[in-house]
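Changelog note: in this version the structure field was regenerated for every chain. One regenerated record is shown below for reference.
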Amino acid sequence: MAVLNGDVLHSEDRLGGNPVTLAKVAEFQEWLDVCVLEEMASTGSTYTWNDKWKHNRVYSKLDWVFINGERSDEMPGCRAHFMHEGGSAHNPIHVSLLADKPKHKRPFKYCNMWNAHPQFKDIPTLGWQMEGCQIYKVVMKMKGLKQTLRRLHVQYFSNLNREVNSLRQKVKTVQEQLQVNPMCLLLLKEEKEVGREFKRESYLVEMLLAQRSKATWLELGDDNTNFSYRMC
């Protein structure tokens, strides 16, 4: 990759002033061909320099970011962004080299904590009756079951950590109040109710963490990895 403050490369790279001639850009283009470089995809300002202190202003694209084809294939998401010049005559350039991460559809994973929900036992029977051959019915039933369980997770389990932290704070607040007024029946009742809910939600989080840690061990534990040695 090369970031250059050079000269115009095309006839449309200058606005105002003398027109761009072929002889002016030929040497620059020849150098790019020898080095096998191409212009990096860019966004932002079209022109990167201007003589803003003169009356008849001239705009030119003098700043460039080039990359070779091999690196471009390895990092298809890299971009150059030409920002506003601010107080300078040249526009600063922000180059992002992060490659586009391939988007994979997340596989369905069963969570043991779903068993604790009172509606869970009724979910497998929902939409279980359908027409078609046996294989078709099995596939469609499993597909429908996955969608129903995902909705259950989003509705009741997606914010477990936040709920546990909120309940922990409530328990702390009630217990602090009990230190001031230890015989208050309302506070004692509230502590019992909030504490029961806190234990329930904490248990669900523990179930999820235990399942995740087991899955991580199954994936990495038997390999000769840093994870395996850290567990020893």
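Spot check on this record: The first strand starts at residue 2 and ends at 5. The helical segments are 22-35, 69-74, 134-156, 160-180, 185-220, 226-230.
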